[in-house]
Design brief:
The protein is an alpha+beta fold. Helices cover 31% and strands 31% of the residues. The chain has a five-stranded antiparallel sheet, with helices on one face. It is globular.
């Protein structure tokens, strides 16, 4: 992971919220909208790529495994002396099991998303609350 410098820091108070439709193409649509925000923050291209990959994985997880609606939130944050993009996806919680056994899932097609999130983020977690589940991650982009 590359720590990159940026020309203009995102404002701390800026938070961007994107609803995710439960429909084909929804992840790509939200990803394009998130790319615009990240470009406005003047982040290095490799940081933008990392953030968008984490966004894609968390949104896809919500679309495939959770009940709608889902929402993406992006905001800059500071953790100690590091700056990061805070990414969170909130959904209504897990979908009821469909009866597919673990052996029915193709490991080449599924199961790597959270590993990707772990590899690209400095911190990540899950918060279960009355309204559903929030999965979050922080992708670092510089130091204070």
């Amino acid at each position: 992971m590359t720590t990159a410098q940026f020309t203009a820091a995102p404002r701390e108070e800026s938070e961007h919220v994107f609803p995710l439709l439960h429909a084909p193409g929804a992840v790509a649509t939200v990803r394009r909208r998130a790319r615009v925000v990240l470009a406005e923050w003047n982040l290095a291209p490799e940081v933008v790529a990392d953030v968008l990959l984490v966004v894609s994985e968390l949104l896809t997880n919500a679309l495939v495994h959770a009940l709608p609606p889902a929402t993406l939130r992006l905001s800059p944050c500071q953790v100690g002396r590091s700056r990061a993009v805070h990414i969170e996806v909130t959904d209504r919680g897990p979908v009821a099991p469909t009866g597919l056994s673990a052996s029915a899932v193709d490991p080449d097609e599924h199961g790597r998303g959270l590993g990707i999130v772990t590899a690209l983020s400095s911190r990540f977690g899950v918060h279960v609350h009355l309204d559903g589940t929030t999965r979050w991650a922080e992708v670092p982009f510089g130091v204070v």
